[in-house]
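User: Teach me something about this protein's shape.
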Amino acid sequence: MKMKNTEKRPPRTKLCNAALWNDIFENLNDEYKNAIDTFHEEAISTLTTATRPAAREVRQLIDPVTLNEESTQDTIDSRHDAENDARLHLDSSSEELSPTSDS
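Assistant: First, the predicted structure itself:
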């Protein structure tokens, strides 16, 4: 049996391996930072949406009579705030997806 003389690729150098691992680490680190930023944005949005109903509950505990006058407007305002937050989130995510030209 005769074997073909095949050329093997030279082994990767330590410098090449280090560069590859650095690229992998940087990409994972960027993804991690983006995930944390997204989590923080969502947490702030959730807390902002929950602020008005929570404030209304505290006012009701302190003075139940004044709540009746304010509750309707607060409910309307909190719904508008939630809708605005949702629109802003959709707008910001669509900006991230749209290609931008630097020319």
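Now, about its shape. The longest helix spans residues 14-62. Helices lie at 14-62, 64-97. If you'd like, I can walk through any region in more detail.
User: That's plenty for now, thanks!
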